[in-house]
Write a structure and sequence with these properties.
By secondary structure, the chain is of the alpha/beta class. It contains twelve helices and seven strands.
Amino acid sequence: MKHFKDLGLAETVLKAVEAEGYTSPTPIQAQVIPAMLDGRDVLGTAQTGTGKTASFVLPLLNRLADDHQRPAAKTCGTLILAPTRELAAQIADSVRAYGKYGRQSVAVVVGGVKPGPQIKAMARGVDILVATPGRLMDHMQGGAIRLDQTTTVILDEADQMLDLGFMPAIRKIMSKVPAKRQTALLSATMPKPIRALANDFLSNPVEVAVETVAKPIELIDQSVILVDRSSKRRILTETLSSNDVERAIVFTRTKRGADKVQRFLADAGLSAAAIHGNKSQSQRERAIKAFK
């Protein structure tokens, strides 16, 4: 399909997609959206940056545009599980952007922030809840969130949730969701534990695989610079100081290493911020906002 209008989406959704500057769906969107609109479970494998988020957000919003019923207190119609706070926030931003002409409600439940506002947000119930597994379990155990009326579950970046040790929590969460539901599992890779999870929780899913798993997207050029340890910081500074570099992400092995590199770059006159698990949520959000 060459255009979003060919997918059968509601006018309010199409209007928002157009406002965001998109006219043609990516390959994964062209396959996942029709499957979800038909009520099918979906098992999708695609690289980061291929449009996975819109592939499930758009059909969710389309359903709410066609048949919007107010959720009961402390419940959600759709649950989207994500591995990190930042991804959860990005998904919620996409829901708001693509749903700007609709009437849906969305809440974000993640760790690293005070639970009170999250409990208040869920008190009346929401259409779409975006959550990380750990904090969601906390609220479920405290009675602030119920999943007995959830009709759709999205497991986004499932392989990352596996790497972070969330599989036991996900299984407990899924045990609280009605058996009659629509489920989509999306992942960049498909290791055996993820396949096993899909077999347990998806019913006759439509399988979508876009391009070779773990292959870099075409927009990325890769190169390697071999240097001895003592020269790493100098070379890094010279590389980032180049006129060709407007923004950059530097990955380090440890949290302490991230702080040390940030200080070194700042001392060299470069604007830099560190982000890792020991930072507060407000610090992480400021760093992401500044990077954008």
